[in-house]
What does this fold into?
Amino acid sequence: MTSYRMPPAAPASRDLSARFAQCLLAGVVVALFCWVPASGQSMGANYADMWLVGYNQPYTDENGDLHVGESGPPGAYVQASQITDGTYASYSHDYTMNANLTKVNGNTTTSYGSGWNYVRLDLSMPFDSEDGGTFYTTHTTSGYCPGSNSYHTLGGAGTSSIFGVSYSVYHKVLQISPSRATYQLIQPCDVVCPYSWGTGLYRVSGVFPEYLRFGVPWVDFGSTIGIICEHAITAYHEQDAPMSCDERGR
It folds into this structure.
C-alpha cells in the first residue's frame, strides 16, 4: 500500500499572505479579462447577416392564373440582423450595441439596444429595384466590466452583399377568353434570374396588356457560392408598348 505524507502546515502569517496574494492576483485577472477585448479581440459571439423580404407578392390560384397588384405593387426590402451573444462563451456582461444598415445610395438606418449577455437588433430598408449594388450592415458592442466598473468596446461584426435585379419580359401570345390570356418569355432574354413561372395562363386584374415585366432580385455571394436568385418580385410593370429584358447590378 502506498502511503502519503502531508506537508507541514504553514504559519498563520504565511497563510494570510498567500491568501492576500491570491485575491490580488484574482483582481488583476478580472481586470485583464475585461481589458483584453479593448485591444481588438471580440468577446462572445458577434454575428451579422442580411437578406431580402418580399411584400405584396404575386400568387397563382388553383387554376394557374397569376394575380398581381391586388394588395398594392409588389416589392422587397433588405432585412439585416446584428447579434452579440455573450452566453456563447459564458461571459456575463451588460452589453450595449449600435448597428447600421447602409444602402447603395449611401442612405443609412441605425438602431441601438442593450441587454444582459445577449443583444439582437433588426434593421430594414426598402430595396430600390431600379438600382443594384452593395449593401452594408455593421455593429459595434460595448460591455460593462465589473472588474473595472466601466464600459469598454468589446468587438463587433459586419457583412456586405451585392444585390441586383433581373428584369424578364413576357409577351401576350393568346387571348383565351375575356378573363384569360397566355404570356410567353420574349427571346432573347439573357438575364441571370428570369421569372420562374415561364409560359402559363395569367389573369392581370381583368386587363391584359401586351407586355408584362417582372423584376426578380438576386444576391451575389462571390466566387465561393455565386449568384442566388431570391423568391421575391421587386418590381412589376405592364404596358402595350414593347419592353426589353434588362439586368441591374452587374
Notes: Residues 27 and 250 are 56 Å apart (CA to CA). The first strand starts at residue 45 and ends at 55. The radius of gyration is 30 Å. The first helix runs from residue 12 to 35.
